[in-house]
Design a protein that fits this description.
Layout (H helix, E strand, L loop, with lengths): L6 H13 L17 E2 L5 E5 L7 H4 L7 H12 L20 E5 L12 H17 L5 E5 L1 H13 L16 E3 L5 E5 L4 H4 L6 H17 L2
Parallel strand pairs: 2-3, 2-4, 4-6
Antiparallel strand pairs: 1-3, 5-6
Helix pairs in contact: 3-7, 4-5
Length: 218
């Protein structure tokens, strides 16, 4: 991906890649939009927020190299959606099983907060993935921004959404038309995990529900 639509994000991702973090000074940072990855035949789609400055912006793989990834891949492996719980490097052999991982924004934003226009600029990539994932049955949105933008993307792709729109709440399961299910989860950020707002038990339950929803629609 060579997108340069968002000047603020381009400047930030490239500055971070050049200046680096001291503990990663020997790394050759990715410093570009981070591609999605996973199983093209997946029934489960995970939508995150955006790459971390010294995580995916460094490694080049979603949720890799930061504490959020440690939480996510441990949980996915436990639920059978990943072949191993590794999260440090993009060449560590990790493969997703019946699962595809994407994000609302593909470039690392300052303070982990993409602007509405930057999310809009990136929306066509999520739209394209929704069209390509022919076996999709379940979407897990990590955080309210991912939740809201997943609904918008589904609407743009022709899904008639219920009224009123589903509300974000951790663990909420929302059946949607055409057999889709949207599950909401707190994002496994340090802000949530270090404070106990999100516990491993709470997070594991999300993936247990996702597995059950996928299996229910075989």
């Amino acid at each position: 991906m060579k997108c340069r639509r968002c000047p603020r994000l381009v400047a930030w991702r490239e500055t971070v890649a050049k200046e680096k973090k001291h503990e990663f000074r020997d790394w050759d940072y990715w410093g570009k939009p981070v591609p999605s990855f996973g199983d093209a035949n997946a029934r489960l789609l995970i939508v995150g927020l955006a790459p971390a400055a010294h995580g995916a912006n460094r490694t080049g793989r979603m949720f890799t190299g930061d504490s959020s990834g440690r939480w996510l891949y441990r949980a996915l492996h436990k639920a059978g959606f990943a072949n191993q719980p590794t999260w440090e490097r993009c060449d560590d052999g990790l493969k997703l099983i019946d699962c595809y991982l994407t994000a609302t924004a593909r470039c690392a934003p300052p303070d982990n907060k993409p602007l509405p226009q930057e999310i809009e600029n990136c929306s066509e990539y999520l739209d394209a993935e929704l069209r390509l994932l022919k076996n999709l049955r379940v979407i897990v949105a990590l955080g309210k921004i991912a939740f809201d933008n997943s609904l918008r993307a589904l609407g743009r792709n022709g899904l008639k959404l219920p009224s009123p729109l589903p509300k974000f709440a951790h663990g909420a399961i929302h059946p949607l038309p055409n057999g889709l299910t949207l599950i909401a989860s707190y994002h496994p950020s340090r802000q949530n995990t270090n404070t106990g707002k999100l516990t491993e038990k709470m997070f594991d339950e999300v993936w247990k529900e996702a597995r059950e929803e996928c299996s229910r629609r075989l």
